[in-house]
Model the fold of this input.
Amino acid sequence: MAAPKSGKAARSARHKDALAKERFSSVKTSAIAGDVDAMFSLASYYEFGVGARRSRKKAFEWYRKAARKGNRSARYTLGVCYSEGVGVPRDDRIAYRWFARAAREGDPDGMCAQALALRHGRGVHKNHSRAYALLREAEARGSADAAFSIGVCLSRGEGVAANKSLALRWFKKAAAKGDTDAMHNVALFLRKGIGGRADPVGATYWRRRITDIKRIPKTGEKLP
Done:
């Protein structure tokens, strides 16, 4: 049984809850009045239960309103909703259309999501060369996730000639940004001497980094 909160902790929790509800109310008023950014914020409040009871259905409805009003982040997020079935039945084809819309408007997350769909044929026919081009553009625009996927494409020869040495460079770039999947692959490449000389010491370093972060790699993509 959890120990009861101290008086100070309880007061702090009540204060945070009251503040969250106040912000939610303010954002909701602005959203209803037509503020597009407020619509997106309100959707996230509903999605994560901040200041209001969690409701994925309401979150989806407000993401959709914001997306239709031109909010680029909402268009990407609406794609995620359709892709994962958040507040709406899952539909990969509709998800792909929203990812593509966000990507056309320069959203790097949309580009990565569209590229992933093209790589795996989710809601669209596979097109590895187009996927690789999108990943390079997303990375150039600052996407932290794109570098890892670029490394996977180079390792497998998806949409680009296979090049293990270049793949290792991209995995290192992603690992330096804290991507634990990339750290896992760097350690694997260094341990087995893939893309360069074997480096047991370097491999151990990256495995320890993963342990320190205490997080399991998120995609688990296996490499040849």
